[in-house]
Design a protein that fits this description.
Blueprint: H1 2-38, E1 42-52, E2 57-68, E3 71-76, E4 79-83, E5 87-92, E6 97-102, E7 124-134, E8 137-146, E9 153-161, E10 167-174, E11 179-189, E12 209-212
Parallel strand pairs: 6-12
Antiparallel strand pairs: 1-2, 1-11, 2-3, 3-4, 4-5, 5-6, 7-8, 8-9, 9-10, 10-11
């Protein structure tokens, strides 16, 4: 009987600890989300790393993205992705090609640039992870697990600067063993952006092949 009581106490303690961890994670994520939504715009320079040890694949590159509400301008791996709020323009200078498509939020399951700072608000269970000292900064990790058991993403470790409440990095692990790490190198807010930054000017690409998927 005594052993059963001890097991029951241990189990209840485990449940209570998990509940506190989940609540703490939600509170922290709400702080991050509120801060992100308070900015007029955000400009981020980042490092992108992809690794799959089983396939002997490792790749690193750098990129930058400008965000204003749902609109964004992303530059990475020689390609520009521009979303003006209605249409998505993928500009590929190497091939002199542009793909234009209409954005459908209901069909968009990826973590797009416009969602990269708030994607965790829906579709994930969260719990507090470890705190790590990285480059003199205290980074609190939050483990995010997809609610959808069929999701390709196994888990995401979201690193949050405890002082600024800004996202420091994101480590995404997929079912096939691929690990994607995005690390923020520069985070600027409320910058004076050109009015035409999120506008597509077709006359700038007269020699390009334009593939209209809309």
């Amino acid at each position: 009987m005594k052993k059963l009581v001890l097991v029951a106490v241990a189990f209840l303690t485990f449940l209570n600890t998990n509940a506190q961890s989940s609540q703490g994670a939600k509170e922290l994520l709400n702080e991050v989300s509120s801060k992100v939504e308070s900015y007029d715009n955000i400009i981020i320079e980042f490092k992108y790393a992809l690794e799959n040890t089983a396939e002997n694949v490792k790749h690193e590159t750098r990129g930058d993205v400008s965000l204003e509400g749902e609109k964004y301008l992303l530059n990475i791996m020689g390609t520009t992705r521009l979303f003006d709020g209605k249409k998505l323009y993928t500009i590929i200078p190497e091939d002199e090609e542009i793909n234009i498509s209409v954005h459908n939020p209901e069909e968009d399951q990826d973590i797009s640039p416009s969602k990269m700072l708030t994607f965790y608000n829906n579709g994930y269970k969260s719990e507090l992870g470890p705190v790590k000292d990285l480059k003199g900064r205290k980074i609190q990790y939050v483990k995010l697990t997809p609610i959808d058991s069929k999701a390709e993403i196994k888990e995401i470790q979201l690193g949050i600067d405890k002082q600024t409440k800004n996202i420091y990095n994101l480590i995404q692990t997929q079912d096939n063993g691929t690990k994607i790490t995005i690390t923020v190198n520069s985070f600027k807010t409320n910058q004076p952006l050109p009015q035409t930054l999120f506008s597509f000017k077709e006359d700038r690409y007269k020699d390009y092949y334009i593939n209209r998927l809309d």
